[in-house]
Amino acid sequence: MQDFLTRLPKAELHLHIEGSLEPELMFSLAQRNGVALPYGSVEEVRAAYDFDDLQSFLNLYYQGMAVLRTADDFFDLAMDYFRRAHAEGVVHVELSFDPQAHLSRGIRMDVQIEGLTKAMRLAERELGLTSALIMSFLRDRSAAEAMGVLDQAAPYWEMIDAVGLDSAELGHPPSKFAAVFERAKALGLPRVAHAGEEGPASYIREAMEQLDVCRIDHGVRCLEDPALVAELVERRLPLTICPLSNVRLKVVDRLDQHPLPALLEAGLTLTLNSDDPAYFGGGMLENFKACERAFGWSQETFIDLARNAIEAAFMSEARRDELL
Ligand code: ADE
Ligand code: ZN
Question: Is the CB of 54 under 6 A from ligand 1?
């Protein structure tokens, strides 16, 4: 089964590139840039990754990314991830990045995008791995700031495949960003949003109705609203599920208690993803393997999940035909 899961062509639709920063690269970038870290060793960093909830993770996630300063740093971050993903049988990655988390530290948008897109081009040339770029807004900052970031990204609109919404969910409903997403829609940018990770099912409905998203990131709490589930099924709106993330952020106590079997049973369009692999104990392959251990799924189930991701991906029709 492990060989099968490795060979299965996998597309990853929910990956925060800053969350792929492994402690080893964190240390080498800290040294390169003269940034002081509050840790003495790689082991100390890993030991600190013991989270109670989303916010306790976000605190370390924003702290860790302080080592990213130059375009080369963003390039190395993404290229390191693409190489690991490729070795795990990942054929397409949709990486989201958080421009505000870098702009607020004085790192310009062009530095971020130049480094990331250079790695995306090299990964396609060298590894045959395709990718898409999702620019995410931080929902715990103001809608006005997000609108400013969207405007500031004008020179890069052509390079951005979608906009997203992430960070601390509770108290920051999708409706807060309705105007920003309306503008993104007017610009022709597809939209995705985290909803129903820690927040209630009503946030998923808001993301559908007020942000007009084409995918929901997480969405595991949709089961609390049967009418919402029926609508998600009817519209075949994909959910990007992140199994190991949900365990590490205590959305569920253990993977064998995860609602994944119930979500499948309901007929929802599901995909498996790693979210923040450096922080949550593994990448795509580890997530697939953990589901095999927890749920004993057949090869057919994994083939269906992998196909869902390819069908829901931002990729050319030619690339989709090649992968399906
Ligand atoms: N940013 C990075 N990972 C996230 C997650 N799992 N939920 C919300 N925001 C995030
Ligand atoms: Zn996420």
Answer: yes
